[in-house]
Design brief:
Blueprint lengths: L5 E7 L3 H12 L6 E7 L6 H4 L8 E4 L5 H11 L4 E4 L5 E2 L3 H11 L5 E10 L2 E4 L3 H4 L11 H4 L2 E4 L14 E5 L2 H6 L9 E3 L2 H5 L10 H12 L2 E12 L14 H21 L2 H6 L1 H22 L3 H13 L5 H6 L4 H16 L6
Parallel strand pairs: 1-2, 1-4, 2-3, 6-11
Antiparallel strand pairs: 4-10, 5-11, 6-7, 6-10, 8-9, 9-11
Helix pairs in contact: 10-12, 12-13
């Protein structure tokens, strides 16, 4: 039986040192029906020179720098495949990634998207083979936070038609997970494969977002469709100093942190607060989400010593969502040194479960 064509979209920006390895990980797949679309988002390094040996094996397009969402949208518009997958240009696929996901989508027409576990690695090797639960560990706290409780159905890993002896005890889970995903990051957006036909209904990624554009896109899918999760790592996430999402020790770290939380608040409002039908049924969960995000952004602003007025605006947002933060409000009126001491003491108390916020 003819295999379904899968389009792999690789957006890249100044990742010449990693891109070739990413492309090779797709070319080395056990699945044959693949097209690779590299969207160069305005790189000014030697990306184009590095990939010359691969030009007969990939589709390559150079565009002016417009952010990862725009690059992926252009790639998706070019895609000829019935299924679409993403690969960041500094990451890698496991060899069986496309086969196991495409086979499952072929067999289960009621499933719109499939995600998976992933591994973390750096220059020294694999850091954590099963990374999702560790990275998003807060989403799996408590006896109810199991895959069996999150998803409504499960299948043996052999149902995907791929023999993975190392993982033969693992399962594939299927269900409607929007409520859970809205509140906790239980899925890795890197690992997705979805039906291209979804774009007709949902559109692409929100291009003004340069952070969490992938989360908002996957959230839209989970809101409307049933999705699958394969409890096997298919994707290798590379950790390095120049990651786009890293804020620590960067000159613009504070600005990136502000953008992160601003985008997350806007996404939470769009899909929760501003959806009157959903909000009326899930008010407590939405308020908790928005209260927590506004608090996190207020603290980030307070730690920089800048824009106390804006910090108070977001603390007001906490109160509007039934999460008043009186002590933090008072701290915005104090000198930066006193704030830093307060946060340091608070951090120490958290270790002993004595947090006074």
């Amino acid at each position: 039986m003819k295999k379904t064509l899968v389009s792999v979209i690789i957006p890249t920006y100044n990742r010449a040192g990693f891109l070739v390895e990413a492309i090779e990980s797709v070319l080395n797949q056990t699945y044959s029906e693949i097209e690779i679309i590299v969207v160069d988002d305005g790189s000014n390094d030697d990306t184009e020179e590095r990939i010359k040996p691969y030009r007969d094996k990939i589709e390559y397009i150079y565009i002016e720098n417009g952010g990862p969402a725009r690059a992926r949208n252009i790639g998706m518009n070019m895609a000829r495949g019935e299924f679409i997958a993403f690969l960041d240009s500094d990451d890698l696929y496991y060899q069986y990634k496309i086969e196991i996901q495409a086979d499952f989508l072929d067999k289960h027409q009621d499933v719109a998207m499939v995600c998976s576990e992933l591994s973390a690695f750096n220059d020294t090797g694999i850091l954590n083979e099963l990374h999702l639960k560790k990275y998003h560990r807060s989403a799996y706290l408590g006896s109810e936070a199991t895959y069996e409780n999150i998803y409504s159905k499960s299948f043996s890993i052999t149902d995907a038609g791929v023999k993975l002896e190392k993982w033969n005890d693992k399962k594939i889970y299927v269900g409607n997970v929007f409520d859970r995903y809205y509140n906790e990051l239980i899925l890795s957006t890197n690992t997705v494969m979805f039906r291209k036909s979804l774009l007709d209904d949902l559109g692409g990624q929100h291009e003004p977002y340069w952070l969490f554009e992938d989360y908002e896109f996957v959230l839209k899918i989970t809101k409307s469709y049933s999705v699958a999760f394969i409890d096997v790592p298919t994707y290798k996430l590379r950790y390095h100093d120049d990651q786009i999402s890293t804020t620590r020790d960067k000159p613009n770290g504070a600005e990136l942190l502000f953008k992160k939380y601003t985008n997350l608040i806007e996404i939470a409002e769009k899909h929760g607060l501003n959806d009157s039908h959903y909000y009326s049924r899930n008010k407590a969960a939405v308020d908790k989400k928005l209260g927590g995000l506004n608090k996190a952004l207020a603290i980030a602003l307070m730690k920089t010593g800048k824009n106390s007025k804006l910090a108070r605006k977001h603390l007001k947002g906490c109160a509007q969502h039934n999460k008043p933060e009186y002590l933090l409000w008072l701290l915005t009126l104090t000198p930066l040194l006193m704030r830093k001491v307060s946060f340091k003491v608070s951090s120490m108390l958290e270790v002993f479960n004595l947090n006074f916020y």
